[in-house]
Amino acid sequence: MEYGLDLEYSFNEFLKGFGLSSEVAHIIWLPLPMLLVLVAAVVGVLVTVWLERKISAAAQQRIGPEYAGALGVLQPIADGLKLLVKEDIIPAKADGILFTAGPILVLVPVILSWLIVPFGQNLLISNVGIGIFLWIALSSIQPIGLLMSGYASNNKYSLLGGLRAAAQSISYEIPLALSVLAIVLMTNSLSTVDIVNQQSGAGILSWNIWRQPVGFIVFWICALAECERLPFDLPEAEEELVAGYQTEYAGMKFALFYLGSYINLILSALLVSILYLGGWGFPIPVELIAKFLNLPINAPFIQVFTASIGIVMTVLKAYLLVFIAILLRWTTPRVRIDQLLDLGWKFLLPISLANLLITAGLKLAFPQYFGG
Amino acid sequence: MSIAITTQFICFTVLSLVVIIGALGVVLLESIVYSAFLLGGVFMSVAGLYLLLNASFVAAAQVLVYVGAVNVLIIFAIMLVNKKEDLKPINDIKSRRVISTSICLTLLSLLIRVDLTNVWSLSSPQNSIGEESTIRIGEHLFSDYLLPFEVASVLLLMAMIGAIVLARRDVMSKDISTGLPVDQELIEKSSEPLLTNKN
Question: Were B40 and a residue from A28, A331, B54, B71 both cysteine, which residue would form a disulfide, CB within 3.0 to 4.6 Å?
Fold first, then answer.
């Protein structure tokens, strides 16, 4: 824990220099990382929306957005502004309270889950002990919001979409949790920081993807299904269900769903990079480079340098996965609902169970490679 | 009073109010859908109370199991069988209300008595294990609470088999309730082709 920047400590010391008590300094500190992460999440969504439009266009040999700013980079902002100023409609026969609460319940757990995403040794909001388990628990709240908005819309397509979303979410949560459990078994800890540190021994060679290839694929499939990305976007399959639970929504309430799904996509990509791709780790360990160049690892400028490399690596890996998710969207056809549930219960669940068993066996047989 | 204690007190008050008002709403509201969603709110606030007690693992497990699984399934079931039906008026409603109120009041007085007689304060309140609790829970589950833990899994298996028997009537040769032989053709496919007759 000695390694790395500790911004909180330095900030508190800085405020104490003005004669404030440590409690007041802590209260002034508290909202800062939260605001920072919220801004990062929203900017991440804007970038992802732009990427999605541009890459989709490229995949279909179109140009995509090009008039709003250079290469259309301002297009997502224009979209957001449009949704902000649109009229907010609640259908006459809809249930007003549940109709409003639904999108909020979908968005809030996703944003809360950013609590545990580390961008560096001390660069996260809170290193809670239950770490990754918090994310699994929070992501299980989302189906309630979907069911709520599906029911409140008073529309059969919405209700069907909400029911599908809940069924899909429940089915894919189990293999997802089991593949996370295999990682936790190797790390001996639920904390995301410990999970990354356990992979930081030998750079790219010690990343979990080599030790958990099956878990990686299962986790990625389940993460896509939880985000309702195509091939798994059945809850909003437009040919069958208009737009599923979003059918009756307009304006800012629709924007909350939109924001929630993209924040969830980025969050899933970040978590895949943390669990399987070494998180903030550089492919070659930074300590090795520093030793090679004869630089002291604890010097302040080296620390700032490693911290910025950490942030860049985390974001880079996450956006690489987002890119793969967008490509998958245009290369795979949508599965049917029965195929989706079969894939979840009859294929992914047994495979992730076997993966857990084999991981436990390997951990006992080769404790030096699979975490003793 | 320091800032930390004040924050804790405010959180405790808000969470307790949400639990009490939400639970009353679950019982008293006419609409079953509202009751189900309020139940989710009550479960969430109980998880918040666990968090205040430094039991973060129990709080997360509460959210995962009660909100994410139990409550979602309750809402799911309500939405699949969302029949609007008028309930039949009950004749002796007044005497029933008197009996249930007296039973509830007796239970309440018993609980108040428990609250007043039991010594709640722990011997050493500073000795909180906090983040260690995950490991401790695991140790207990696989040592002194092993039997209840395993028996619970048998209970779940029984519930699952029961659900499968109820849902898949076609696997039985006789109907469970009537004892008549089941017409398996009817369940597997429509007894007459839907499209050919319309020509």
Answer: B71
Q: Kindly state the average pLDDT of the residues A314-327.
A: 90
The nearest alpha carbon in chain B to A152 belongs to B33
* Residue B193 pLDDT exceeds 60: no
Average pLDDT of every residue of chain A: 84
Grade residue B171 by pLDDT with cuts at 50, 70 and 90.
Answer: low
Closest in A140, A150, A162 to B68, CB measured: A140
What span, in angstroms and rounded, lies between the C-alpha atoms of A187 and A42? 31
Is the CB of A23 less than 8 angstroms away from the CB of B3?
yes
pLDDT of residue A289: 78
Interchain pair B79, A151: CB under 8 A: yes
* Partners of residue B80 in chain A, C-beta under 8 Å: 163
Q: What is the DSSP string of A144-193?
A: HHHHHHHHHTT-HHHHHHHHHHHHHHHHHHHHHHHHHHHHHHHHT---HH
Read off the tokens for A35: 């605001």
- Distance (Å) from the alpha carbon of B199 to chain A's nearest alpha carbon: 27
What is the ipTM metric for this complex?
Answer: 0.82
Examine residue B193 and say whether the peptide bond preceding it is cis (omega within 30 degrees of 0). Answer: no
DSSP state of A346: I
> B172: Cβ–Cβ under 8 A, 6 or more apart, which residues?
B165, B182
Q: Mean pLDDT throughout B124-129?
A: 61
- Per the CB < 8 A criterion, the answer to whether B26 and B42 are in contact is yes
* Window A:52-111, CB contacts with B under 8 Å: 98
Q: What is the pTM of this model?
A: 0.84
Amino acid, res. A65: P
- Cβ contacts (< 8 Å) between A144 and chain B: which residues? 37, 40, 67, 71-72, 75
Residue A288 is encoded by which pair of tokens? 């090795």
The span from the CA of A93 to the CA of A115, in Å, is 38
Confidence category of residue B83, pLDDT binned at 50, 70, 90: low
CB contact under 8 Å between B33 and A151, yes or no, is yes
Residue A156: other Cβ atoms inside 10 A: 12
Of A148, A150, A167, the CB nearest to B37: A148
| Nearest-CB residue to A137 (from B40, B63, B130) | B63
Q: What Cα–Cα distance (Å) separates residue A45 from each residue in A108, A224, B11, B172?
A: 15, 16, 32, 53
Q: Number of residue pairs across A and B with CB atoms under 8 Å?
A: 72
Selected residue of B2, B29, B32, B75 to mutate for chain A interface (largest A Cβ count, 10 A): B75
CB A252 within 8 A of CB A89: no
Query: In the 8-state DSSP scheme, what is residue B181?
Result: B
The rounded distance, in Å, linking the Cα atoms of A131 and A191 is 4
**What confidence score (pLDDT) does residue A323 get?**
92
Instruction: Report how far residue A68's alpha carbon sits from residue A46's, in angstroms, rounded to the nearest whole number.
Output: 13
Tokens of A201: 């021994």
